[in-house]
Structures are given as C-alpha cells and as structure tokens.
Amino acid sequence: MSSITPLLDTLVHQVAKQKATVDLLPRGAPPVVPVQATASTTEFSQAGQQFSRLLQIIEGLQQQLPSQTPGRAIRPTANQPIFPSSHVLSVASLADRLGSLTRNSGLFYEAFLSQWVKNKVPFEVVRQQPQNLAQNQQIKIASQQLEMISSGVVRFEFDVSPDIQLFGVIQPDVHPLVKRWQQEQAQPQEHDEANDWTTELRITFPILGTLRARLRMQEAQLSIELQCDEEWRDKLQAASEEFRARLMNAHGIKVSSLIVRGGQ
Q: Model pTM?
C-alpha cells in the first residue's frame, strides 16, 4: 500500500500541471457549447449561428472518419507498456514519462505551432509531434482532436507496466474555447484566471485491485475521493494524511477534503 500514495502524488501533480486549453482555432473564433454550461446562454446569443456552424463542421468531419478508428484516448503509439515488468517504478520517472506522452500525443500540435511562431518553444518540440513522425497516425489524431474540440474533455489510457493500467479523463468546468472567447471579449481584469476542473482516474494493480480517484479543483483547492477494495481501505486511510501533506509541501496544492471509501 505504501507504493500507492507516491503514484497518486505523481498523478495529481501531473493533472494539476496540465492545461487543457488547446489553440486549435484562430483567435477571435466563437466557442462551442461547453460540457457544463456555467454562464448564461444569452451571453453567447450573438454568435449562435456561428456556434451551430462550427458544431456542424465538427460533426461532418467526424462522420468522414472511418468507423474503425481506434479509441480516442491519449495512449502510446504502439500501445506498449510505458515500463517493462522488471522496471522499478519511481515517482520521478513516471511523472516524466506521463508528461512526455501527453505533450507528444499530437493533440496539442497546433498549440505548439502557435508557441513556436512566438518563440516560446523550440522547433524540436514541434518536430517530435507524431504528425511529423508517423503519417499513418493522422486519422486517429484528427479524431481525437475533433472529440476534444467538441467536448473540451481530455481522455488518456496508459499501460504503466504489463500489470498496471491507468485510465482517466480531465474535464474543465468551462470549455477551453468558451473561456478564451470570454477573456478576449472582456476588458482586462474583468475575468479571473480560475481553472476549475474535475478528473476521474482508474488504476488497476495486480494485487491491490482497482483504485478509483475523483479529483475536483475549485478555487485553487483540491478535493479528493478515493475508492478501493474494502480490505485496503484502512491502510489507504492511514496513509491519506501523509499524502495530503506531501501534496502541500512538495507541490503547493492545498487539499480541502480527502475521503477514502471501500468497495467498488
């Protein structure tokens, strides 16, 4: 059980660092409808027809993609485990590998191009995107990007090792394109920089079984719900305070609540 909290530490830190705002549309373009509408619908009434047209374009492009297109979650190109079964996992190596797989998934290609033009990232970052390395991946990546544009949700699926699988989604409260549109239409300082989001994680271990985690970031405070097999609940509960302290001391993440539940 002592190996679970460092792994969760890594995952929480990586999720907190990710910004799911992807620059796939030109500046000034209207946003799509958010997954969870948090603003008045009248706020976007002037761009209603443009919203409808954008959604029609996305749906049309999705229909043109082959029905056998693989799953749309971020996952390694060859669908191979990140680490072999003989590898001793460490927080640092796992964090580095997860970050690399996310950056080089191809979903953020246009965002990296935009940053490269502004001299914010080196061209090597752009060159390492799969669009420039594996042409046969373009249809799959296009499908993933279209889903992300329409939903605002980032999905990922990794085989950490042959025995450990990780699945998850990251969903911001406000669709990234809606948020960017709000910021562009507003006067300076009119909108705050809140980045509230919810993440669902599922990790399968060979001995411990399945661990589920729900992370909720709201107003810079994180609430965590963990669910595991009943036999491991007390041990996970005993390690929870150390987990909470490590998130604060190592990463500056304040945990407002941490609940451990038993049973699936």
A: 0.68
Tell me which residue of 235, 246, 241, 247 sits closest to 211, measured CA to CA: 235
Q: Which of 255, 164, 165, 262 is nearest to 215 (CA)?
A: 255
The string of DSSP codes covering 41-109 is GGGGGGGHHHHHHHHHHHHHHHHHS-TTPPP-SB--TT---SS-TTS---HHHHHHHHHHHHHTTSTTH
What is the rounded CA–CA span in Å between residue 5 and residue 64? 44
Reported as type and span, the H/E element at residue 138 is helix 138-151
Q: Which residues have a Cβ under 8 Å from the Cβ of 49 and sit 6 or more positions away?
A: none
Please state, in angstroms and rounded to a whole number, the distance separating the CA atoms of residues 81 and 86.
Answer: 12
pLDDT along the chain (264 residues), means of 10: 59 56 39 40 49 60 54 66 83 86 88 92 91 79 82 88 90 81 64 75 89 91 93 92 90 91 82
**166 close to 157: Cβ distance less than 8 angstroms:** yes
**CB 53 within 8 Å of CB 32:** no
87 phi, psi to nearest 5 deg? -80, 135
- Is residue 163 within 8 Å of 83, Cβ to Cβ? no
